[in-house]
Design brief:
The protein is an alpha+beta fold and about 600 residues long. It folds into three domains: about 280 residues, no CATH class; about 60 residues, no CATH class; about 230 residues, Nucleotidyltransferase, domain 5, CATH 3.30.420. The protein is built from 22 helices and 21 strands. Strand 13 and strand 14 form a beta hairpin. It binds iron/sulfur cluster. The site of iron/sulfur cluster has 13 residues, from helix 2 and helix 10.
């Protein structure tokens, strides 16, 4: 029997996973081949890449995972090579690293008749200890953001490696209250948090390695590290043979190392218990339904691969998971109801949830809309929001490539690198033609075309006219980044940024806007528009069909992920295909800004 690290992580989700996996393809009594292991581990790494590229709104990405994998594979490989090449700067001794699993150091241990197996990304040995370094294409931000607004629970030591404050023997209260430290540290111990996910991964690795060493009576001091992309690294734009060179810049390297020795130690008992559960699951191979829970990681990029089977108990539309803020559970006075407990007791649809536990006004409105089949519209708030809009109005949208490794000067790891903008000019209310009033720019290849893009955009958008976007934090952040990268356009880009108005403020709401217009706190925070078909989402793709016949269905490039993949494919395309794909990408982004016009126009007509 052989259990790889990736398999361990999945098998410990629930008994059903093990049985379904066995049914699907595995025979646990066969030794896993290195090819299978390699495939499994590579898949895991790439999925981690995807996690860094999209937030929870990126549900579509689950369906386009394979194209994603292909697109991102070269970047992941490069991250691993960079981590290996930089390691001797931080660690002494000899190294063994390779992006090929064949050449990596391996450990295995037999526990309860099960063979556990793992390979090490970077193996470092010196006279004092062994260092196990696991490379993850995530960023330091996930770890440095743990703490309060002034300090992180991690700090760089004199050797340039990040440590938990406790490991540096510092007085934690000099940095933050102990309670804050403990609360954030606890996130590392929860495998279902974004930072804890990687810690659990290393803890499983450690469990296998320690059992292996123990079985050989080897008593070595082993330390465990994560090697991740450094969020503070800003690329200076130096290239060699057309490839970016990631030199040390302002004391920062592209890769940072985080000591996770003490925190993974705290997880070992849990990992041991998980191994006991896995053993039981394998012995029983029981594929009957089990309760759904956070271990399914539903709609997460690392979701269980059997979600489609197990979550079919939920209705396609109006499920309990479509209630806004359902992750906080539901309440009747002091009595709390966990969402998964409700699902597991058969309350799977919105209408199954009794009114007495719908403690949030928003959820009560959602339910009313489903019951009546009608929209909820706060016409007064929408009218007041529309009054804020001035003309001519510039509808703006960016498409970006969130590259793990910075490609151009001024970028950091995972900078959302802008390669396209679309602009529709609505001269006066309701007057905007899909083609005649459209402008845009799409980078023709993977060279740095940001300056051309910025220049053209600045020419098109006057400094004193309103710019409409949908969900403003994304466009505002891109405008700010571009302003710092191109100082000659800084003033203009900040003026454009200051003129940004978010259409979502009118569809959904924005507390500060409506409070400034005289609404009470309660009124200001309640959404303005809701239709049962939105099913808890205010994304433009959900809102558009309510106001227009425009649709993304059938479009060759039909969502942001496909747009990113299409752009990534440019260098590989033959001329005819390139021309075709280029045009499809133009059409997609054009649709995004025209969709804003259509929604705005629809809202205006709705409240007339
Ligand atoms: S979806 Fe959830 S319940 Fe089903 S196999 Fe996966 S982890 Fe288990």
């Amino acid at each position: 029997m052989a259990i790889t690290k990736t398999k361990f992580i999945n098998y410990s989700r629930c008994p059903r996973y093990v049985a379904l996996d066995d049914l699907k393809k595995e025979k646990l009594d066969s030794m896993i081949s290195i090819e299978e292991y390699k495939k499994e581990e590579e898949m895991e790494h790439i999925i981690e890449l995807l996690c860094n590229m999209f937030d929870d709104n990126g549900n579509d990405l689950i369906d386009v995972k394979n194209e994603h994998l292909e697109t991102m594979m070269p970047y992941y490989n490069k991250v691993e090579i960079l981590a290996g090449e930089l390691a001797p700067k931080y660690f002494k001794g000899s190294f063994r690293f390779s992006k090929s699993t064949y050449n990596q150091e391996s450990f295995d241990a037999i526990i309860n008749n099960i063979r556990y197996l793992c390979y090490v990304d970077i193996y470092n040995k010196n006279e004092n200890n062994i260092n196990i370094i696991e490379v993850k294409a995530t960023t330091t931000k996930k770890y440095l953001d743990l703490g309060n607004k002034d300090n992180s629970i991690f700090k760089k030591g004199n050797d340039g490696i990040y440590y938990l404050l406790e490991d540096l023997n510092l007085n934690i209260e000099d940095f933050m209250p102990l309670k804050v430290y403990e609360r954030n540290r606890a996130k590392l111990l929860d495998r279902y948090t974004v930072s804890g996910h990687y810690i659990y991964d290393v803890a499983v690795q450690r469990f296998i390695i320690e059992n292996d060493l123990r079985s050989h009576n080897e008593n070595k001091n082993v330390k465990y590290y994560l090697a991740v992309l450094n969020s503070d690294y800003v690329f200076d734009g130096k290239y060699e043979n057309g490839e970016p060179i990631y030199n040390t810049i302002n004391g920062e390297d592209i890769i940072a190392y985080i000591d996770v020795t003490s925190i993974t130690k705290d997880l070992l008992d849990k990992v041991y218990l998980d191994s006991q559960r896995i053993k039981k699951y394998i012995d029983e191979l029981d594929g009957s339904r089990v309760n759904l829970g956070k271990y399914c990681e539903y709609k997460n990029t690392v979701s269980c691969k059997f979600c489609k089977i197990c979550f079919n108990v939920l209705p396609e539309k109006h499920s309990i998971l479509n209630y806004i803020d359902n992750h906080h559970g539901f309440k009747d006075g002091k009595l709390k109801y966990d969402t998964y407990d409700l699902i597991n007791s058969g309350k799977v649809g919105m209408l199954d949830i009794p009114d007495n536990i719908l403690n949030r006004e928003k959820n009560r409105i959602q339910k009313e809309c489903v019951v009546s089949g009608k929209s909820y519209i706060n016409k007064k708030k929408i009218r007041d929001g529309l009054k804020q809009i001035t003309y001519p109005l510039y509808h703006l949208d960016f498409e970006t490539f969130p590259c793990p490794l910075p490609r151009y000067k001024g970028e950091r790891p995972y900078t959302q690198s802008v390669f396209q903008f679309s602009l529709h000019v609505e001269e006066k209310p309701g007057k905007c033609d899909l083609e005649k009033n459209h402008y845009g720019y799409l980078a023709p290849d993977h060279l740095d075309h940001r300056l051309d893009l910025v220049k053209y955009m600045c020419e098109l958008i006057p400094s004193d006219k309103m710019v409409l976007v949908y969900n403003d934090s994304f466009e505002k952040t891109r405008l700010k980044e571009l302003a710092y990268i191109f100082p000659e356009y800084k003033d203009k880009l900040f003026k454009i940024r200051n003129n940004v108005f978010d259409l979502m403020n009118i569809v959904k709401t924005k507390s500060s806007l409506y409070e400034s217009l005289g609404y009470s706190k309660e009124e200001a925070k309640m959404f303005n528009y809701y239709h049962p078909d939105m099913d808890g989402s205010f994304s433009i793709k959900k809102v558009l069909p309510l106001f227009s016949n425009l649709t993304y269905k059938g479009m060759e490039v039909g969502n942001g992920v496909e747009a990113m993949i299409t752009y990534a494919s440019f260098p590989k395309l033959l001329p005819l295909d390139y021309k075709h794909k280029y045009q499809k990408l133009v059409e997609y982004c054009r649709q995004d800004t025209y969709a804003m016009f259509a929604v705005l126009d629809g809202l205006r007509k709705t409240v007339k």
